[in-house]
Specification:
Strand order of the largest sheet: 1-2
Distance between the termini: 40 Å
Number of domains: 1
Radius of gyration: 22 Å
Number of helices: 12
Strand content: under 5%
Number of strands: 2
Order of helices and strands: HHHHHEEHHHHHHH
Length: 265
């Protein structure tokens, strides 16, 4: 339950299995309909317990926070021409969707026909369960993040990080403040070589202080501990969804274990 609500612990590895199994089922379904769609590369999800990966110092040394060189927008997939056959196979004729209540008044439309829906049903039992398994962990994690900001341990962890940063000549209350301050500078001055160097230096010092004070680990521990303070209704939802996820993961691992070797180079 705690892993589910914070996307930590066993969650990343299980999510990898779910997504890789879904991709294999979807690929097989398309091939059965004569569509030679390229197989998806293996999904890899970093564990939040891995502080080095969470901080990402190598990326900070080259791009800072990435403010001066934002990632280019990803092109929308094209379904024109021959792609219409792919659309019909993936989503079913007419692309029918099912509205699924995630939590409260939050509703998501999910494909109810085609290869995508078939893979979801194979793994989770039905498309509604898959949709809730997909969206609920993020919603709970966001609530844990919000609750954490009112915890005294959170303030203490940030104070330790801030002290480390002050020893390096900065005056920030949190990593978010450091990034926001630099973003404001870019808005005022535009991208300059000097400001980019300043961004990289601040991002690296920020990362060094996070690692020195074990900030990612401390914040994750707080989030995990706060799950127990959720309402009885929330805990019942977590228990039920954790059981459904356990069953889906077992099916996913069965799919992966029986996967035929790929003929692609």
């Amino acid at each position: 339950m705690v892993d589910f609500a914070t996307r930590s612990g066993s969650w990343p590895g299980e999510e990898e299995d779910l997504e890789n199994a879904f991709n294999q089922l979807d690929h097989r379904c398309l091939q059965a309909q004569g569509i030679d769609d390229p197989a998806s590369p293996p999904v890899r999800i970093p564990a939040p317990e891995d502080e080095a990966a969470a901080v990402g110092l190598p990326a900070r040394r080259s791009a800072g926070y990435g403010l001066a060189d934002p990632a280019p927008p990803q092109p929308e997939p094209s379904f024109t021409g021959s792609g219409e056959k792919l659309r019909a196979a993936q989503f079913g004729p007419g692309s029918p969707h099912l509205p699924v209540v995630i939590e409260g008044n939050a509703t998501v439309d999910t494909p109810s026909r085609g290869c995508i829906a078939e893979a979801h049903e194979r793994l989770a039992g039905d498309v509604a369960t898959w949709t809730r398994l997909y969206y609920l962990p993020q919603r709970f994690d966001e609530r844990m993040l919000a609750a954490m900001t009112h915890d005294a341990r959170y303030s203490a962890a940030l104070a330790a990080w801030s002290t480390c940063m002050r020893s390096r000549g900065y005056s920030y209350n949190s990593p978010d403040d450091a990034e926001s301050a630099l973003r404001s500078q870019y808005q005022k001055l535009g991208v300059t070589t000097a400001l980019k160097r300043q961004e990289v230096r601040a991002a690296v010092d920020d990362g060094d202080c996070q690692l020195a004070e074990h900030l990612p680990t401390r914040l994750l521990q707080i989030r995990r501990s706060l799950v127990a303070s959720l309402s009885r209704s929330d805990l019942e939802t977590l228990a039920a969804m954790s059981r459904l996820r356990r069953d889906a993961v077992a099916r996913a691992r069965s799919v992966l274990a029986t996967a035929a070797p790929s003929k692609r180079p």
